[in-house]
Amino acid sequence: MSDTRFQDLTANTSRHLAPMRSHLPEVMQGFGALSRAALAAGVLDEKTKELIALAIAVATRCDDCIGFHAKALVRLHGTPEELREMLGVAVYMGGGPSLMYASHAIQAYEEFAVAAK
């Protein structure tokens, strides 16, 4: 696999969503507002919320979601140890398929961590 698989995936997803942004701006603005509100620091900090989002991405087997939330986790200085512990919970909740997608989350995290250096 490419060393930039998840960087390429997130860039391609963003590019392919451009028609949604231009033709359905209210929908995309609404989704953006929902995202910002859901991930804003409150009782839980932003990093914790990104760990939750990444766990759900693994359990629901969404590679695009894994890429975007792994990138955010790196930006928020999530550690490999936090990632692995969260993945244990995601696998517990999602079973064998989530175990396979846990490897995708590790790959995405490592890829964005290298790129962030």
From TrEMBL:
GO molecular function, a single term: peroxiredoxin activity
Gene3D superfamilies xref list: AhpD-like
NCBIfam families tied to this protein: ahpD_dom (TIGR00778)
Native species: Denitratimonas tolerans
One Pfam family recorded for the sequence: CMD
Identification of the protein by name: Carboxymuconolactone decarboxylase family protein
Residues covered by the Carboxymuconolactone decarboxylase-like domain: 25-107
